[in-house]
């Protein structure tokens, strides 16, 4: 076989594998998102590490997040972010300040919100799957808010295991899922910031 024919065959084989990996990745994500959206709400307990420079990781800390439709709440050590789908409250615990903004001007900064709001601008590629059925998927979107997201999903159970989130500024957040709970009874005011419970907090309305 001539050299150029060998190269052509190798290229065709690589292209076929790449398309297969992309299709498999998109299928896994669609199944996972469908599973998540089938529930009334989701609570996730996770631990996270932040790397401002994308290399050196800070200490591991625990956080909680809830997602119900367009509403969500994220509780982390230094900050809480709450949204009812229309308004976002960003509460800086140590500074005793809460910044209020419109939801359409905010960011999707919970792993669940990121996952369920992914659009077609992200290219998904399956890069690895181990013997336990844990798949590693790369999501790339150079023009998006998140430069790249690496997801680990248990393909057998359609469960999110972890997310590495790479930001435009070079920083990175690593999130490892510890526990997921579903379909809880949450109060109507659960996804709002109650200023009466925080009388000493300075409210900065940015709307």
| Rg from Cα | 20 Å
- Reading the helices and strands in chain order gives HEEEEEEHEEEEEE
Return the CATH topology: outer membrane lipoprotein receptor (LolB), chain A
Q: Assign the structural class, choosing from mainly alpha, mainly beta, alpha/beta, alpha+beta, or little secondary structure.
A: alpha+beta
Strand order of the largest sheet: 7-8-9-10-11-1-2-3-4-5-6-12
Distance between the termini: 68 Å
The main sheet comes to:
12 strands, mixed
Number of DSSP-assigned strands: 12
What oligomerization state is this entry in?
single chain
Low-confidence stretches: 1-22
The total domain count is 1
| Portion in helices | 10-25%
The top level CATH class name: Mainly Beta
Q: Assess the beta-strand content as a share of residues.
A: 35-45%
CATH superfamily: Lipoprotein localisation LolA/LolB/LppX
Assign an overall shape: globular
Mean pLDDT: 79
Tally of helical runs: 2
* CATH architecture assignment: Clam
